[in-house]
């Protein structure tokens, strides 16, 4: 991935979005958005190392998709496990091209009741782990000729969450947005692009308590100009854009995919 000149444009611009021959890591891949992200990168041609604490769910995904899915049970809150995860990806594919930091944790409740251990766990998973994985991925990506890191933040990295009270989550996701800016600026000339996605309200394990609750659904419909929650496939385009050569001139940006939530 040249840093002193633009990547040559292919005759077919859709080929920019392909990931054939590339190796990717997706954390939090056992369910929800992370599982979808793994499917999308795999469909684009990548070998995908899928990481999460639930190894059985990763094995099910590998059985379903077949070749080019490598299960790697990992607790990203453990720094040593982050190091092993990156080593596993390099071992599996001989290189590392894409890292999707998707694993997340949250606690919902008033800030004055958020326990120190809950705060610490949230920041460990949502902010410290992405930083450590970015650090570990840097040298293999440079050795592979460059790479793309996609940090999955949240609209709550840009705005407050209340009435859904999540102080630790909001703080960690806001930190991830600015970490993305800083790493993007530091590493752009080395061929490692760091960007992010900030999903709005999507159905996932983390938000499952909201769906089926009339007041919660009305809150989402009222707050998003598009008038509804997102469908998981509506993140596919942003993910492929940032993970692929389609975005070689995009650095340090976090793209809200939120139905307009942060636009008003």
Word description of this protein:
The protein starts with 22 loop residues before the first strand and ends in a 7-residue tail after the last strand. The chain is globular and about 50 Å long. It has a 7-stranded parallel beta sheet with strand order 3-2-1-4-5-6-7, with helices on both faces. The chain is built from 7 helices and 7 strands; from the N terminus they run βαβαβαβαβαβααβ. It has helices at 32-43, 55-65, 79-93, 116-143, 167-187, 214-223, 236-243; strands spanning 23-27, 47-52, 69-73, 98-101, 147-152, 192-199, 254-257. It is an alpha/beta fold. The chain has one domain: NAD(P)-binding Rossmann-like Domain (Rossmann fold). Helix 1 (32-43) packs across helix 7, helix 3 packs parallel to helix 4 (116-143) and helix 4 (116-143) packs parallel to helix 5 (167-187). The longest helix has 28 residues, at 116-143.
Any descriptors?
seven-stranded parallel sheet, 14% strand, alpha/beta, Rossmann fold, 7 strands, 7 helices, 264 residues
């Amino acid at each position: 991935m040249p840093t002193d000149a633009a990547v040559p444009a292919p005759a077919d611009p859709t080929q920019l979005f392909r990931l054939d021959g590339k190796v990717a890591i997706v954390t939090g891949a056992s369910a929800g958005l992370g599982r979808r992200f793994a499917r999308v990168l795999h469909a684009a041609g990548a070998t995908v190392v899928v990481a999460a604490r639930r190894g059985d769910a990763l094995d099910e995904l590998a059985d379903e998709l077949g070749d080019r899915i490598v299960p790697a049970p990992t607790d990203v809150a453990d720094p040593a496990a982050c190091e092993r995860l990156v080593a596993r990806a390099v071992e599996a594919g001989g290189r590392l091209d894409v890292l999707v930091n998707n694993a997340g944790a949250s606690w919902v409740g008033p800030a004055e009741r958020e326990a120190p251990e809950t705060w610490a766990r949230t920041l460990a998973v949502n902010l410290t782990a992405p930083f450590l994985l970015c650090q570990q991925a840097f040298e293999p990506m440079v050795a592979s000729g460059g790479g793309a890191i996609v940090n999955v933040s949240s609209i709550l990295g840009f705005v407050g969450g209340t009435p859904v009270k999540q102080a630790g989550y909001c703080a960690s996701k806001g930190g991830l947005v600015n970490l993305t800016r800083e790493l993007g600026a530091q590493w752009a000339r080395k061929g490692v692009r760091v960007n992010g996605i900030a999903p709005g309200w999507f159905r996932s394990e983390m938000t499952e308590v909201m769906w089926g609750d009339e007041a919660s659904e009305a809150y989402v419909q009222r707050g998003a100009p598009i008038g509804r929650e997102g469908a998981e496939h509506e993140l596919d385009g942003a993910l492929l854009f940032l993970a692929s050569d389609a975005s070689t001139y995009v650095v340090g940006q976090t793209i809200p995919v939120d139905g307009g939530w942060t636009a008003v």
